[in-house]
Design brief:
- This protein is 89% helix and 0% strand.
- The chain is mainly α and 261 residues long.
- It has two domains: 1-41; 43-260, Orthogonal Bundle (MetI-like fold), CATH 1.10.3720.
- The longest helix has 40 residues, at 2-41.
Length: 261
């Protein structure tokens, strides 16, 4: 048994190294194709990878990139936490209580289909060109998608586990932490990943329309001057932050879910 366990661990390690090498190879191939296309086309509107790196270095040294990225990440974090918290409560309540789902379903469908741009514009008109309006617009746009995923998750929970908890008189807080919420972890992860990708995009639009700082504002300024290398440099920094969040937050949580299964 010990030998088979060691062999299984070794096979898993080799598979993980192979997957990492494949990802790195695809990334290097992408960079080579990018650099080659830029060299062949020789167009100012299609900067090469090296030119983009130079722009990334310039904006990093000047300080505007770090400041704007930090401002945008802060907005994303606040919006993400609020949307996940409110959307999760709303969705779990809809999935656990049929009467509440009947009352809220039409309202949820409306929120899902109202264009994000409309919500952003109305928030700026009603609240003003302030930070609260920007955060409110992002949260309102994200809550419905979180609620939908958590509603479906709440519908799939095992009612027999709740009955067992009642028989053994398990306190509600322990039941939620040990029995109920772990069944929803995959849905929390899916909602978080989907939500983060959506919130990034909405925050940029919010900054472009009504803020004087952040990545969205910087991209708008560069667009006016046709600074393609700067736009790509900001995009690279943006992608680096997203990967960091994925590796630090989502990947460990995903591994924990897989171990639970």
């Amino acid at each position: 048994m010990a030998i088979s366990a060691i062999a299984g661990a070794s096979a898993s390690s080799r598979a993980a190294r192979t997957a990492t090498l494949i990802k790195l190879s695809m990334f290097v191939l992408f960079l080579v194709i990018w650099q080659t296309l830029a060299f062949v086309l020789a167009q100012p509107d299609f900067p090469s990878f090296t030119q983009t790196l130079s722009a990334l270095y310039y904006h990093s040294v000047s300080g505007d990139l770090i400041i704007n990225v930090a401002i945008t990440v802060t907005r994303v974090a606040i919006s993400f936490i609020l949307a996940m918290f409110l959307g999760s409560i709303f969705g779990i309540a809809m999935g656990a209580r049929a009467w509440f789902n009947q009352l809220s379903d039409s309202f949820l469908i409306i929120l899902l289909n109202v264009p994000a741009l409309v919500v952003i514009i109305l928030s700026y008109i009603w609240i003003g060109l302030v930070e609260a309006a920007a955060i409110t617009a992002v949260v309102i746009n994200k809550i419905p998608t979180v609620a939908v995923m958590l509603r479906e998750g709440a519908r799939t929970t095992d009612p027999k586990l709740a009955q067992v908890a009642q028989v053994y008189n398990i306190p509600w807080w322990r039941f939620m932490r040990k029995i109920y919420l772990p069944q929803l972890y995959p849905f929390f992860l899916a909602a978080a990943r989907n939500g983060l990708s959506l919130i990034w995009k909405i925050v940029l639009v919010v900054e472009l329309l009504g803020r004087s700082d952040g990545v969205g504002f910087a991209l708008h300024s560069m667009f006016q001057f046709f600074d393609i290398a700067g736009i790509l440099a900001y995009t690279m920094a943006f992608i680096a932050v997203v990967f960091m969040i994925e590796w630090v937050c989502f990947t460990p949580f995903d591994a924990r879910i897989q171990r639970g299964r």
